[in-house]
Amino acid sequence: MSHAFRVSPGGKLSGSLRVPGDKSISHRSIMLGAIADGTTHVSGFLEGADAISTMNVFRALGVRIEGPDQGRVTVHGVGIDGLRPSATPLDCGNAGTAMRLLIGLLAGQGFESTLIGDESLSKRPMRRVADPLAGMGARIETQDGKPPVRIRPVDALNGIDFDMPVASAQVKSALLLAGLYAQGETSVSEPAPTRDHTERMLAGFGVAVSRSGNRVGVQGGQRLRATDIDVPSDISSAAFFLVGASIAPGSDLLLEHVGVNPTRTGILDILKLMGADIELRNLREVGGEPVADIRVRHAPLRGIEVPAELVPLAIDEFPVLFVAAACASGRTVVTGAEELRVKESDRIAVMADGLQALGVAAQATPDGMIIDGRADGQPAFGTGTIESHGDHRIAMAFAIAALRAAGELRILDTVNVATSFPGFGSLARSAGLSLAEVDD
Ligand code: S3P
Asked: Model's pTM, two decimal places?
């Protein structure tokens, strides 16, 4: 038996809501708290399966962690050299961020570890971190570039200066974490800006992080000092409601306490270029991360060519941005987004299949999609059944599409929605979506 959504067509989104905590920041709060000296208190922690996987991995590595309890977590740091070998493989579940960052963090330990994941994670590429780490002296074995990943102990790592071929925050973060255990400086330059939560949080833990231009670096041998972390709401989860309110006539929604780090706000820029009515209120800084309340009201959208530099800044939001494009007058063209093919599913192929099944003129390209949308005043989607391929963001994107569908949408294999957005169904219902969660 698996879970599914049945979503009735039409409706609008209104009221105010707070979506759960940021997934990227939640993973990092456990990782850095674990290797810090002292006790780190986290609030707003994402109680989703991915971040819980990270928490359980660090418990297996000998770290005492209390919670989560209503978003509160206490991490009793063991210090930079305090992790202990696990007797069993470390299970990262569905979480690519957990696995890639852990490969970096564990590469310089004096003990062996094995990392495993679920069916989806077991298909995802790990050489992008394993290869540069090998260049630092790490001993990492993969199965043809994929998990399980075995990390053997080494005496020492050497710092490197790495020119990253793909714009990936996970690769950058893995190298910086390994760099804490390396001799000399480890630096990474990125081809385009990517999320900088690792750099910001390392600085919050008292680590000196050097930044110049597109290069970021750390000196090995630094210790981390425990701190308190207030995790903002995840803009990647808010994205479903930003698009939903934009495409559904009559909508007026306030999303509270959303993280608006400029390396994450590509979704806001892209939607605004499409004509969305989005307003940031009460902009403030919380624990080193910018936060705002976001008001979004329905507005007629138009198709655009998505600027290349915005792609890495909105990389997780494309499933729902494709839904927005289907509701925009004219053509939307996305290029330079080939990374979408190696996410929790092949998000170009899976979205194109689902959109076409609902009658949308969507054409997959090797590195993106071309979509001819339907403007306001008519349904943009037909009716039917969608395969989410166990990908949380595909499932939520099609749930939002129902706001502009001609008939009911049935979305299959939705259990992984809980990896990033536990409670999506009830929050979406409270905002006005007619969504039922059913056993399939
Ligand atoms: C993440 C980085 C991105 C993103 C993922 C979270 C992170 O992956 O897609 O959901 O927390 O560092 P890539 O580094 O593969 O682009």
From this structure: 0.98
